[in-house]
């Protein structure tokens, strides 16, 4: 099974090695973490795509693809995400583990060399990235933004986030805006790239069964060339609600959406969030949950109805797809289920079934390299590193009294509805 070893290899650069003998492949990722800001969001999002198209050593896509083929069909990727009030730009490469390569090939070293080419030696035109790659990436990124708008379930949750976190970085899209994307220049990307290298927190992950020594040595040598400053990684958490905000939007659609957004002062920056996570799962996170069984199945008020907890922000969102005529009745039914949870109106079966479901979910997450990395990435950001086994023990130790206490802490802040036009 997995174990993690963590060390700082340069100023603000942390190397996390996860040893696991279940996989025949290995994965290396380098993630730059910075505060999510309106003025840099689109630049960082574009960099994640532009920088994986070419390098100075492999200046066109054909040469880069050939190199990946030579590495037993290794896969190279770049993506951007947000975690709380922070933006994360990740570059990764995965391929066959060293022990399965022919003639003793050191594939992990070769993959590291290529990844370092991507990160430290991009294809540049002076102090600018090349316009051809930028133009193509802008088009693709705007298509992704359009796809989120067209998916009304995603659109509605994004709108609810903008409302409840109006004055917080979490309200921003990890991609920025289409308008900002259009204005980004090659020089902007160059300055953004330099800033990532010098002013970020960097989390490197190596997942595999072979030695990570060659990976550490190369990345340490590269990052040590920079006079780095590690930026602070913070999240705004507030459980205070002064008034419930109600926002309605109308569009041409067949199924209305309703999002109920709640605040709590419980977050993984300072608390053990497992009791809250269990309470939220009991409410609407599993097939045994109150929202699924009662609001959706028994009352037939929703096409779907589920809850999820954003542990680094202390927020809970309840998402539902409803008929327009049922919106008010569905809202009241949902709030009744939360009241029942806060008043202890639930059975031991509900507790035990939810605990089992959560533990199975944890175990499933860690069944592949990507999931295992995702698990520990979340852990290191909260400075509380625990294995899947430890997390399951934590879940199973949560008491009925803790569940009730957590449910009472959830305060309704925002009701957002996306309704079909008459």
TrEMBL record:
It comes from the Bacteria. Residues 184-355 form the Peptidase M16 C-terminal domain. Gene3D superfamilies: Metalloenzyme, LuxS/M16 peptidase-like (3.30.830.10). InterPro entries: Metalloenz_LuxS/M16 (IPR011249), MPP/UQCRC_Complex (IPR050361), Peptidase_M16_C (IPR007863). PANTHER family: INACTIVE METALLOPROTEASE YMFF-RELATED (PTHR11851:SF186), METALLOPROTEASE (PTHR11851). This is Pitrilysin family protein. It comes from Ruminococcoides intestinihominis. The lineage of its organism: Bacteria, Bacillati, Bacillota, Clostridia, Eubacteriales.
